[in-house]
Amino acid sequence: MSEVYAVRRTRLRECCNAGGSAAALVSRPANVRYLAGPAPEGAVLLLGRTDDVLVCPGTPDDRAPGTPGSRPDENLPVRLAPGASADPALTAAALAASQGADSLAVEEHHLTVSRHRAIRSAAPTLRLADIGGAVEQLRVVKDEEEISCLRIGAEIADQALGELLESILVGRTERHLALELERRLVDHGADGPAFPTSVGTGPNAGRRGHRPTDRRVEEGDFLSVCLGATYRGYRCEIGRTFVIGTAPADWQIELYDLVFAAQRAGRESLVPGAACRSVDHAARQVLDSAGYADALHPLTGHGVGLEIDEDPQLAPSAMGKLDACVPVTVEPGVHLPGRGGVRIDDTLVVRPEADGGPELLTITTKELLAL
């Protein structure tokens, strides 16, 4: 992986140099990991005029875990910020100045105003510029190693969800089911959940971002579940909706079939070169035409990777087009206040038709099951 990290840093350096900056300071944790590998909390990366350095807080023993795949780039020098309370960003800025840099690009969207001022004070000879979202843009297209991590994470999430569906659900609380799912993720090899697991029953079903409550599962409920696994830092997402105990009611079947059709339309639109807004439109128009425009979330899907919500965004106002090897979610849903709703959510990788079209990573059945 050392070579991969070096290539990524070279690409960022070229971007910064083109913008007139001789050095760059990367502080956003996901971006540090992308460019340097797993690093301790609070570490920053300096792309220096002469050398790249990972600046870490703490003692040498705290630098990184010792398990395979959990260490920073072994070819990247590591420096410790002096003192337990020292800010590694200030150390990195001073180091950039000592290397003869006259300018330093920083991630203004991540730094607080006070931290930005402190960096300026630590290295007053440096002209501070903004990297903008340069690293985030580099992260959009994944290499096959990154996609492999997402694929394994999806397999873990599928396995955890499948096991839950084989258990007795009636009478258990949303909170209990969510905790069990998160335990199963770890049992099957995940670093942990990719985000707080959402379990909604009855009137809570289909509500995006619903935090589990002590409501108990009842016969005839819709049960919606949204979970994800983190594997070697990469995060995937899956969401499914089921009916509890009895055969689904007519309104449940109709609503489910509609959301399923919308989700399928979105998935089928995932081709290289497709406008991000066109994917959103493909899913949205199915639900809009059925009269659910007011019940729709402003976002149909988003990129995933080292963070669960990355670019690209699949929304009506989204700019840009999809590239091959970009993993995204497609997750339309409808929630009817007081009744419940349906959400179906998959993680897929954009692939050209010659390679079989979009690769579905989350494969748990989308059939409306009565559990």
Notes on the protein architecture:
The protein is of the alpha+beta class. Helices cover 33% and strands 20% of the residues. The protein has 9 helices and 19 strands. It has a 6-stranded mixed sheet, sandwiched between helices. Strand 2 (44-47) and strand 3 form a beta hairpin. Helix 3 runs parallel beside helix 4 (113-122) and helix 8 runs antiparallel to helix 9 (276-289). The longest helix has 22 residues, at 144-165. The chain is elongated. The model is unreliable at 62-68 (pLDDT under 50).
How many runs of DSSP E, i.e. beta strands?
Answer: 19
Give the neighbour order of strands across the main sheet. Answer: 4-3-2-1-5-6
Mean pLDDT across the residues is: 94
Largest sheet: 6 strands, mixed
Uncertain parts: 62-68
The level of helicity is 25-40%
Structural class: alpha+beta
Notable traits:
3-stranded antiparallel sheet, 33% helix, 6-stranded mixed sheet, 9 helices, alpha+beta, single chain, 371 residues
Layout of strands and helices, then pairs:
Elements: H1 2-18, E1 23-26, H2 29-36, E2 44-47, E3 52-56, E4 78-80, H3 88-98, E5 103-106, H4 113-122, E6 127-130, H5 134-140, H6 144-165, H7 174-187, E7 192-193, E8 198-201, E9 222-227, E10 229-231, E11 234-235, E12 238-243, H8 250-268, H9 276-289, E13 301-303, E14 310-314, E15 327-330, E16 333-336, E17 340-343, E18 346-349, E19 359-360
Parallel strand pairs: 1-5, 3-4, 5-6
Antiparallel strand pairs: 1-2, 2-3, 7-10, 8-9, 9-12, 10-11, 13-14, 15-18, 16-17, 18-19
Summarize the structure.
With 371 residues, this protein is of the alpha+beta class.
